Here is the input.
Amino acid sequence: MLRRVIELLPVLFLASIAVFLLLHLAPGDPSYFIAGRDATPEVREAVRQRMGLDKPLHVQYLIWLGDILQGNLGDSALSGHPVSELILARLPATLHLTVAGFIVTILLSLLAGIPGALRPNSKMDHVLSTYSAVAFGIPVFWLGILFILLFSVRLRWLPPSGYVGFLEDPLRSLRFLLMPAFTLGIANSGVLSRFIKFSVLETLQQDYIRTARSKGLAERVVIRRHALRNALIPVVTVAALMVGRLLGGAVVIEVVFAWPGLGRLLLEGINNRDYPVVQATLLFVVLIFVIVNLITDFLYVYLDPRVQLHRR
Here is the structure.
């Protein structure tokens, strides 16, 4: 476990370089947005000095990396608030949406993948395959807009946008959560459902499945205890990778549904060229993704004893 954690350090280091360079090489001068259009060149130069943009690029990176290692994410260039406070304030909303979207993704993927594998080439399989193709190809923002038009504007069943914490009012929070969560879940279930289907199909062709059937075991026992249990082991890895897709999709969903999470914070920082906010938020998202994959490695060993994380 310690070796796995140490191996993540180079990944985070390279990610920090990528985040820093992609942002600083993008067109646009942050001092123009921070100081305002009518600011004089002297004022803009003062803003650049305050943000450290007058220093060479490698010096800026080393200063920023040193602050990150000390736990200092910096202050927002626009509002002056500590970036760590901004992230922590938006994090619960993003986790709320991501976890709900992940649960919906898993449920829809299992419902669309397993029946199609158990009855290949049937009418149900064709219907579920069509659903997977449509879910995979539909743009997530367009699906969110369709949901708003249908369930908010026409039917008036759900609120079109907003956020309420679960602990504040669970029922009201659920009403605000349903459309964003299902938008994320449907958009991501297309890939996972097809992977589940083909994983189950491949498992059903293994020798130990034929052996279990030859012993006279009931088909439901063969499917539940032998086929599904082994077929879903590789699905764990793919499901963990879905966290990255969910976080990426959350950026769009939070804008469509006015969800006050990290996605909107990131977009606001990009629009305002607020480098400290954008850099810290992107690196924080990368950290979440890396931690999820680390947990997946250990969970994989628990699910499949044949896998050993020994020293090679």
About this structure: The radius of gyration is 24 Å. The chain has two domains: 2-69, 86-303. Residues 2-69 form one domain. The mean pLDDT is 84.
